[in-house]
Structures are given as structure tokens and as C-alpha cells.
């Protein structure tokens, strides 16, 4: 009897789950009618479609403003799973969410322009935008006025002016970067196996060098070694003796922002995976076939070494985008800021009243992570919703005060007075919103061979853990954070596909 009931309950919950998912998909595919944007309302321009901006747009009540979004990327990218796209563990479209689908579900319509913002004219409240895509219409450059502006343009790749990086290296920030890396890995493999290739050239072509031992470099190195162990070794056995991954880091250890025991665990795991780590090694120059790196030898002497490579992935962190640099140069209060737009505790760009900044382009004393950007975006949405409510209440209060003054009898006057009191109370509540406070949930990183490391904020402090269990936690955490049900299903299907059939070794 117990078994029968268990079976019935399981059956009902499966049916319930399917109906719920089906309804979600139906709703997603049939958006409701939208209210037209209201030009009489304040124009809120949002730059970017990354973690910060999309998190703001998700929670923003778009009926309160005339909202315009400008970004050269018409999709949101779930960056934490981008390293998995470089080897085909996950297909890139599984972690992209079209911005059009998402905006179409907002109550009031939002305008979207696929363009780069090339200049922000702070004095004249105007941005200049440029459509840089291949297809050109009658115009590809124009201007957009704003009352309020949110800058969420992220950051670009830091090269520290090291010669040859841009020309010869691959970055890992956008979908195009991951596609380029995937193609290059297979190009190196196929070229290395070309008839009569010299042994030195085979060695060079199969040497995969990653510069930067931060989370991006570490995760990519782990994914690449997995690709070799699980797939390449099997399908192209002749490369097995020469395929080699090296991670080069200027500091004494990798993952400097993680706990000491997780750093040791990662370094030990890499050793077992045969990924070579070269710490205290600073890359100074990059040519087409080798990098020049400086290290200190056993005698304490600085030495310059040439390291040949087939693939070079450059992951040395963030740098300012030109549009942000230019805005900073227009505002005297930003003169001492170096790494990004200095903001106050309400994320207002210092020295301005109507410009806010979120994510990697803002400096608010937090690490440039998706977690910070998403929380900042959600905070701004709450702030803007409250601001709109405040304005609404203040207008209502003003008209009630006039009505009270003009009231013909005591009853109407008392009635207006009671309403005013009530509104004043609501206004105080609305205005009492505190400043932005970041709540750190923890840091996670995949380190290869189905292992991950995690520094998790716990009730009593910090929990630092690494291994296979952490890897399952890593997977479930990122799965739950995916943008949409569609993304989640696609990622699960990709993981299953990789498990069953292995990764695709064809070169696109
Ligand atoms: P982004 O998400 O980079 O978005 C910037 C947006 O601005 C983009 O839409 C871009 O197209 C647009 N844009 C650029 N220039 C202009 C312009 N001139 N005008 C208009 N729009 C413009 N963080 C974590 O917390 N956990 C992780 O696991 C993690 N993994 C990562 C893995 C990788 C490979 C990378 C590269 C980063 C990872 N991060 C992670 C960091 C995280 O992705 C960033 O901190 C986050 O994306 C910052 O969000 P953002 O909104 O500031 O910028
Ligand atoms: P990073 O700034 O975290 O690390 C870059 C590393 O490159 C540094 O350790 C630096 O010492 C090294 N470096 C710089 N110049 C060098 C040179 N010339 N030669 C050798 N080494 C050099 O950059 P990363 O990994 O791109 O991350 C950027 C941001 O995104 C960080 O805030 C990070 O926390 C976040 N992120 C988080 C992830 C996660 O939580 N899993 C994954 C990826 C990124």
C-alpha cells in the first residue's frame, strides 16, 4: 500500500512538473500586449545587455519611464559557462538569451538599438551611438537624449600594453572569443598531424599556453585538459605525447582571490592533470610563435625565456572601455579614479546627478564579478521604481494640499487631511531606501577532471571546499542561475550529449 501511494505521488509530481514547465514555455512564447513607451515620462537610457543592465531591466517597472536600451550585443551572455564553450562541452547558443524575447515580456515596451555608445555627453545629456554591424541602412550613427543614464558597458581585456597580445593571442570574454579558441585548438591539432611536420613544430603547435592564473585562466586550462583526456587523446592518438597545457601567472600562486587551501588544492589537481603551472613568471612580449616571459631563477637573477606556443589564451583581467575613459575625463570628480567610474553608495557616478554605473565599469570597492553586477542592477531597479513612486506621491500630495485649502466645508477638509497624512506616511516609507549593500554568496571555479573549488559564505563564516562533490554543487548552482528555463534545458542537454557522445572534434 505504501509503495502504491509513493508511486501515485511520484506520478502526480512528474505530471505537475511537466504541466508547470509546459505552461511556462507557453507563456514565454505568447507575450501579452505591451503598453507603448510614454515620451512624456523621463527617458531612461540603459547602456549594455550584460549582468548589470539585464538584472536592472528584469526588475524595472518599465511603465514608469520611457526606457531605451543600447548595446552592440542583442543577447545576454551567461559568462560563467563560457569556458565550457571553448571545447564544445556546452554549445554557445545554450548560454545566450535574446534580449528581444526578454524585453518583449516587459509591461511597457522598451526600445532597443543594436549599437555601440561611442560618446556620453554629460553636460548636454546626450549619447552618441554607432551601428557597427555588417549590414548598413541609410544611417548608422545618431544621438539619443536622456534624462537618466545607466552605464553598464562592462570592461575590455587588459593587455597592459604588452606588444603582440592583440595580434596573436585569443581573449575569453565574448561568444566570438570562445568560437575562435575552439577553432584554433582543432587547427593546431590538424596542422600538427600534417604530413612531414617537423618534431619541433609538432611540439610548438600542441603547446597550449594560458596567460593569467585568475579564475578565467584556471577554468579554461581545466576545460582544455578535459577535452584532451576525454576526446582528443582517443580520436587523434598521435598527438598524445606532445599535447601540453601551461598556465603562466605573474604572482606566486594561481587563484589569488581564493582561500589558501583551495589554491593548494587547485595546484595539486593541476599537477595530477599534467597541467604545468609557471608562477612568478611575467609575460613581457608576444610574437606569432612564442611568448617572452621573465622569471627569477634559483640565484635570484631575472631571466627572459622564450616559450613557443600553438594556441595562446590571454586572461589577465579587465581594462577600461574608451567610452568610460572619455566620460571620466569630462567629470572633475572622477580625476583620481583609475580603474573605473567612481560611484557613491547609491551607485550614482560621482560628480553627476543623473548618471548611474553598474558592474565591471563601476568602482564600488567590490571585485568585478557577475554576482556584484547582478546585485547592483537589481538595487538600481528598486531605486528607480521607488523614485517613480515618490514622484507620483509628491504630485498627488501637491494636488491634495490645494484641494484641502480650497475645501468648502470641514468634512472635505478633514477627508483631504487624512489622505495627506496617509500619503506622507507612504512617502516616508518609500524614501527610506538604504544604500547599496553587497551580499557575497561565495566564489566557485571549475578546475578540470570533474572537480571544482568553492569559497562559500556560511552562517558562521567561510566554507572552503574542493573536489567532486563541489563539482556537482558548481553544476547545480550555475544551472539554477541560468537566465531562463530554455537555457537550463539546453545546458542539461549539452552536458548529457557530451557524456554520451563526447565532444565534437570537427573544425568549423
Ligand atoms: P558585461 O556582462 O560584460 O556586459 C557589458 C555589456 O555592455 C555587453 O552587453 C556589451 O556588449 C555592452 N557594451 C560594451 N561596450 C558598449 C558600448 N560602447 N555601448 C553600449 N554597450 C556596450 N563572475 C562571477 O561572478 N562568476 C563567474 O563564474 C564568472 N565567470 C566568468 C567567466 C568568464 C569567461 C568571464 C569573462 C567572466 C566571468 N565572470 C564571472 C565575471 C562576469 O562575467 C563579469 O563580472 C560580468 O559580466 C560584469 O557584468 P557587466 O554587466 O558589468 O558587464
Ligand atoms: P583576474 O584579474 O582575476 O586575473 C588575472 C591574472 O593575470 C592575475 O592573477 C595577474 O597576476 C595575471 N597577470 C597579469 N598580467 C600578467 C602577465 N603579463 N603575465 C602573467 N600573468 C599576468 O582576471 P580574470 O581571471 O580574467 O577574471 C576577471 C574577473 O572576473 C575577476 O574579478 C574574477 O573574479 C571574475 N571571474 C570569476 C570567475 C568565477 O568566479 N568562477 C570566473 C572568471 C572570472
Automatic annotation (TrEMBL):
Top-level class of the enzyme under EC nomenclature: oxidoreductase
Ranges where the External alternative NADH-ubiquinone oxidoreductase-like C-terminal domain occurs: 440-504
Pfam families the UniProt entry points to: NDH2_C (PF22366), Pyr_redox_2 (PF07992)
Transmembrane parts of this sequence: 5-26
Keywords: FAD, Flavoprotein, Membrane, NAD, Oxidoreductase, Transit peptide, Transmembrane, Transmembrane helix
MF term (GO), any: NADH dehydrogenase (quinone) (non-electrogenic) activity
Residue ranges constituting the FAD/NAD(P)-binding domain according to the UniProt record: 43-377
EC number, UniProt record: 1.6.5.9
Cross-referenced Gene3D superfamilies: 3.50.50.100
GO cellular component: mitochondrion
Catalyzed reactions: a quinone + NADH + H(+) = a quinol + NAD(+); a ubiquinone + NADH + H(+) = a ubiquinol + NAD(+)
Family indicated by similarity: Belongs to the NADH dehydrogenase family.
UniProt name for this protein: NADH:ubiquinone reductase (non-electrogenic)
Organism: Recurvomyces mirabilis
Upper taxonomic lineage: Eukaryota, Fungi, Dikarya, Ascomycota, Pezizomycotina
Gene: NDE1_1
